[in-house]
Amino acid sequence: MPHPAVLTPAADHGGAGGAPFSVLVVEDQPSVRQALVAELHAAGVHDIIEAESGLPALEIFRRRRPDMVLLDIRLPGHDGYWVAQQMREAEPGDWTPIIFLSGLDSELDVWRGIESGGDDYLVKPVKPIVLVAKLRAMRRLLDMRRRLVVLSDELHRTNRLLNDMVEADALTQLVNRRGFDRLLHSEILAARRDATPLTLMLCDIDHFKRYNDALGHVQGDACLRQIGQLLREVCIRPHDVASRYGGEEFALILPNTPRSGAMTFARALGRVLQGRAIPHPDSPLGGTITVSGGITTCVPDEGTSAESMVMRADETLYAVKAQGRNRFFSFEMQMDTVEQRLA
Length: 343
What we know:
By secondary structure, this protein is α/β, with parallel strands linked by helices. It has eleven helices and eleven strands.
């Protein structure tokens, strides 16, 4: 009759997708340890690490991260229960199967082993067929967990992709209103925590209805895409956000941007737009597309909300339109880009 250990199919001994499988054997009696190693080799496990006591076993566990541990309870110095507890603390959020080995088989011993972090309990001397069965069982559990981790990672990536799709404006590929609301709230919390200034700009394309009336909505959509591309180009810092707020209105979130920096940014945006010279055949401001904007800047406190910042920027934008458009106005500085340029 063949040795029980060789009854295990070779396919059972690879990791997920045939990856190698490693076992840490912690046993202070050389003869018992050699017998366990021989049985593991017979079962198809070739990556075997040996340790005679708890502290070296812990060092190996942290450094090598074996796929399974066979752990004797009676060890010189710290016993196996303590070693198992330390191993569990060394892998938060992860899981390595730990099988205790002991000549003790009382219910209390089994309970202590499970409570200290073990997954199974074998009584010495270990029968080869039992060892192989436990090895198979732990391999299945480990492979299932690995597959779940892979599926979880794939699900996370898919959810992130879906979230990006949900928060993207289909026409301009900027962040849409939903994404803007979420990101503004997040940046307010971050600026409050770090005590740094946060700037919000609401921008409106001047006389865009007249543009659509003159050239049609298809050309109007093309104009919106051009403005969206321009805003992406000027929002160059990692946390700057350009979004389409609605219709021909856009919103820019500029973290760590003080009032003076916001006005400098606004003037630069105006110059870039002027340089593009996007034709507007029916604008009373000239022959090209212009933009008006309302700016609000603050170091958020407990009373700062996304709604209050949007309200200030929106009120300022209306004031800009009343003063002739084609400029940006700061709610806090009570100054527009035309005045600042003249100054």
